[in-house]
Amino acid sequence: MVLSAGNKLRLFQLLFSDPGRSFYSSGDKVSGTVQLEAAQPCRVIGLRVTAAGCARVEHRGGKNRRSRRQEVEYLKYEEELRLEELLSKDSDGCFLLQPGKTYSWKFGFELPPPGRLVSSYKGKFGSVRYYARAVLERPSQQASQCEQEFEVEEPLDVNQPDLLAPSAASKQQKITCMFIPDGQVSISAQIDKKGFCEGEDITINAKFENTCSRIVVPKAAIISRHTYLADGYAKVQRQKLSAVRGNHIISGMCDMWQGKAIRVPKLKPSLLGCDIIKVDYALMIYLHIPGSEKLILELPIVIGTIPFSGVGSRTNSMSSQARSLGSQAGSMSSWASLPSAPPSYSNIHRDMRVDGPRTPLLYDYDGGEDDNDEGGLFMSAPETYYTPPPAYSEVDQDSVNPPQVLQAF
């Protein structure tokens, strides 16, 4: 910070020892210098350095829409610099800065241990901010100050056992048309772990069933939730970050995703340790249903800073946990791994036929989660019958009636 000659100070600034450092973590030492240069002889009383870290939330809520604020302190430090090391006192006990010379004092402090800090954050209704400030006191004048912000990023390791465990769930929804039952749709889904880092792929195994008369489309998206708490009121922001979609599913059919991937974009890590601000993520798997609300299934995920190492990622306990989760989600592993019996060829004309005479054609539109998708065009499906092929048999006809071999002379 450069001051005018009227303030008798030409230079007053705070510099960190490593200006190129992008962030600090718990237990790291923050150090630097405070520099002073006077334009003309200047008397000072004292110089101190303070550091602070605070989470702050401000938003409007409630019936009267009044402003609500709340703060939580995570760092507080203060150090009085020893001016007598470089300056001499006058008869009044003040220190004298001589013009044309730059004075420099060092400072340093250690950040609190793990568990007592949260990562820096800046959002629409709140922030977590850390800074160091130098305060210069002069006789008969208001104190001058300068400050520098620094970033804090707490490590979040996705190799923790609870984040390496799989996650699964299932959900179904009944569909009505003008209050008349119209079948139902269902989703069963599983991911192999809950912790991910930027650039990793989330592998999805899912089964979608459609017994209603409409054409539905399966989709998946990574969503973020930013929650701000102030005076007992919460403000929540949701955002869709990246998405994938599957094929249309007509009435009476089902579809399966085996290893379908969605990549984690560049994201801020999950913010889980703050008392008034929370940032978490989820994998939303859903069915787009014309004329009805979406069927939505959410699997929580955590975005970390230390990527998956690939060592010791699966133990016997985790495998058993995966089996239990799979059974709770409708035996996900059974339909994904066990072979099914061969189909009955005589029923092909029934399987390939649309059950209802009126089936809506889905808009080819991938709208946001707040869309109101209404209606749809209808088509008449002709009842087409196919000539059945020969009956299926497990007997090898060549072994029963071996082919005749002709000898060539």
UniProtKB/TrEMBL annotation:
Organism domain of life: Eukaryota
Protein name: Thioredoxin-interacting protein
GO biological process terms on file: nervous system development; protein transport
Gene Ontology molecular functions: ubiquitin protein ligase binding
Organism classification: Eukaryota, Metazoa, Chordata, Craniata, Vertebrata
Primary localisation category: cytoplasm
Assembly notes: Homodimer; disulfide-linked. Interacts with TXN/thioredoxin through its redox-active site. Interacts with transcriptional repressors ZBTB16, ZBTB32 and HDAC1. Interacts with DDIT4.
Similarity-based family: Belongs to the arrestin family.
PANTHER family per the UniProt record, alphabetical: ARRESTIN DOMAIN CONTAINING PROTEIN, THIOREDOXIN-INTERACTING PROTEIN
Region (Disordered): 372-409
Physiological role: May act as an oxidative stress mediator by inhibiting thioredoxin activity or by limiting its bioavailability. Interacts with COPS5 and restores COPS5-induced suppression of CDKN1B stability, blocking the COPS5-mediated translocation of CDKN1B from the nucleus to the cytoplasm. Functions as a transcriptional repressor, possibly by acting as a bridge molecule between transcription factors and corepressor complexes, and over-expression will induce G0/G1 cell cycle arrest. Required for the maturation of natural killer cells. Acts as a suppressor of tumor cell growth.
Composition bias type Polar residues, residue spans: 398-409
Keyword tags: Cell cycle, Cytoplasm, Disulfide bond, Isopeptide bond, Phosphoprotein, Transcription, Transcription regulation, Ubl conjugation
Annotated localization: Cytoplasm
